[in-house]
Amino acid sequence: MGDETGARGAEAGPFRGETKKHKSVMKLPQVPVRIVAVQANAIFGERHMVKPANMLKIVPAVAVIATLGATLAFAGAIEDRQAGMKQVGKAMGAFAGIAKGEAPYDAAVVKTNADSMREAWKKAFANFTAGSEKGPPETYAKAEIWSDPEGFKAAEDAAFKALDALAATSDEAGFKTALGGLGEACKGCHTKFRRPKD
Ligand code: HEC
Predict the structure, then answer these.
(1) Other CB atoms within 10 A of residue 29 CB
(2) How many Å apart are CA 133 and CA 141, to the nearest integer?
(3) 47 compared with 56, residue with greater pLDDT
């Protein structure tokens, strides 16, 4: 029962494991995109010369292409939000390092990582689009994101607020306290809106 969103968990491993696991999955859809484009062109380009009997073969092919196209569009949103969240995890790791004394407290470093986290969240939150509820690639987003948009928005707002509070600190003690608040914000959202990975 790890506190994977807390300062300790961010550094301890789950994020690293997730990063590896997803890298190969994320590359997969990029090859079919090009192949699909070529096939689509070939089929639509020749359509006017096709005899009715041959249409039977073409219709299923077009259906397959349409399905693939839809899947790929959603894959982009899932990949983009997961990549954004990975960047969030990276910044969290930097914060955790400071909190643990592995790196010196430096207000400028805190601010740089806070900016990175803010941008990464904007990117991630913009990609929970309608139709991207299901992969591939595998997504851990819960259906509640789409059935309870107000609740999800509230979790986003709480996260930005906690991050702003962290970025505004100017000494180590204040930083550590605010980091606890930020960890709670991650956990609050993940508990409600994200399936655990295992
Ligand atoms: C408002 C909701 C929300 C907040 C706040 C939030 N997350 Fe997430 N996070 C998600 C959701 C949803 C996913 C699953 C995305 C998916 O699989 O499509 C996720 C996924 C992740 C992942 C896995 C990315 C991957 O490789 O697939 C990491 C790492 C992560 N979050 C870190 C954090 C950290 C660290 C914080 C706090 C500093 C945080 N998140 C705050 C909603 C949130």
Answers:
(1) 20
(2) 7
(3) 56
